[in-house]
Amino acid sequence: MLNNKFGKMVAGITLSFMILASGSLVIPSKAVHAASVSAASATSNNIIDTGKQYLGVPYKFGSSSNQTKTFDCSSFTQRLYKLNGVQLPRTAKSQSNVGRYISRSQLQPGDLVFFYSPIHHVAIYIGNGQILHTYGAPGVTISSLNSGWWSDHYTTARRVL
């Protein structure tokens, strides 16, 4: 009888320590998650702030991401993300296959937004229903995603941060 009570007590103490230990392991993971979320937010802010410095730079199809005199849509995104440690493929179509799918309702600043079918345009979601991108006559510009042409031709989005 004594051995049975002692065994139950040891088992109870062991179980209590296991619960305490597992609870303490959860706290750092939440802190790590919060840190990674804020790091992604800081990176997206850097990408957007840097991209806005190029407002008005002319569009030229086939532009290299190794220079800043002209951009096409995917050289623009490739350059901005590379400056922030994120490697993207060269074309909009290829960029649409990296990261993870994000629904339109879940867009966050820094997400890549794609247009047409088949995909051949990419932009950066900057928040408040706006995108930063380059095309045609305006060159690097900010457009509304929630109305007009860009809203009508939206295809998908990817989160790479």
Automatic annotation (TrEMBL):
Keyword Hydrolase: yes
Keywords: Hydrolase, Protease, Thiol protease
GO biological process: one example: proteolysis
An example Gene Ontology molecular-function term: cysteine-type peptidase activity
InterPro entries: NLP_P60_dom, Papain-like_cys_pep_sf, Peptidase_C40
Family membership: Belongs to the peptidase C40 family.
Record-given protein name: Uncharacterized protein
